[in-house]
Amino acid sequence: MGHLSIKQRLTLELNRQWVKDLEQKHPLTQLFWESTLRCNMNCRHCGSDCRVSSIHPDMPFADFRKVLLRIKERYDSHKIMVIISGGEPLMRDDILKCGREIYNLEFPWGMVSNGRLMTPRKIDQVLGAGAHSLTISLDGFEEDHNWMRGSGDGFAYASKAVEILAKEPTIKFDVVTCVNRRNYSSLEQFKEYLISLGLKKWRIFTVFPVGRAAHDPELQLDKEEFRGLMEFIKKTRKEGRISVNYACEGFLREYEGEVRDHLFGCQAGLSIASVLIDGSISACGSIRSDFHQGNIYKDDFIDVWENRFHPYRDRSWMKKDQCGECKWFRYCQGGGMHLRDDNGDLILCHLDKLK
């Protein structure tokens, strides 16, 4: 196992140079806004440990708007996608007004939602507010999805939303599915179900052990299942009936170039930034460890983006512990930043599951 063809190695070398170029230029292309920590579900794998009533209040949009105005002074807003996340963004009564204002500022914007509040009327309103993209979470059939999401009716609402949005040509849309030990065996049937709903784009990820998922063994695939998942994605991609990608979770060795449209390269801090609920300036929204680079309430966002983010843009510090002697470090660079704890230690290595 683990043999790479000459073509794969050449492609990985080219990708490595591309990532190095991004480290130097770091063009901002995605900005996550953690708009709320409130949520109407109780997901087993939640990294933020969100609640219906969060102890931290929603960020006033006026505060985030100042960040957007500052970004607009320096960069082309049309080239920066704003992704509204949470919690569940639709828990905010003003979220559509926020979206419309982002649109008026000439930023494309999208939203990640659990679909529970995505009624046909709400979908029309989201589209009317100028949304460019939407992602709905759907984690298998009814019993598996509702188990994962801690909801008795989440599947029905999310499925209906998928059915409607899959037929809407004016928006980029995909479904994200968290594969775990419970829904793994029904992936083939679930794929057919998604195709029957008209879905064109499907994104799959596996759970990394942080937040509520840190001590839940039912969420973690074993080695055989993980390799089986990679083979399922390869097979589905070759079929060509639905576009499926494994998320940017980590370096996958012989599966690089086989299970997603791009090769691995963690974009956190290279092209991706985030503004968290307390104003912290960070990178990818999946990063729950404290790698914050500043705070919008005391720092200039542009100064932070252009002159900080050193832990993200020079990852030589990750070459330690099991990464220290790993022959794949040249391409992996220590894995995704979301797989590091506050001390910078590795939480999970995908290569361990491909041995």
Commentary on this structure:
This protein is an alpha/beta fold and about 350 residues long. It contains 12 helices and 10 strands. The chain has helices at about 5-25, 60-75, 95-105, 120-130, 140-150, 155-165, 185-195, 225-240, 300-305, 310-315, 320-325, 330, and strands at about 30-35, 80-85, 110-115, 135, 170-180, 200-205, 245, 270-275, 280, 295. The chain has a 10-stranded mixed β-sheet, with helices on one face. Helix 4 links the parallel strand 3 (about 110-115) and strand 4. The longest helix is centred in the N-terminal third of the chain and has 20 residues, at about 5-25. The chain is globular. The N and C termini lie close together (about 5 Å). The mean pLDDT is about 95.
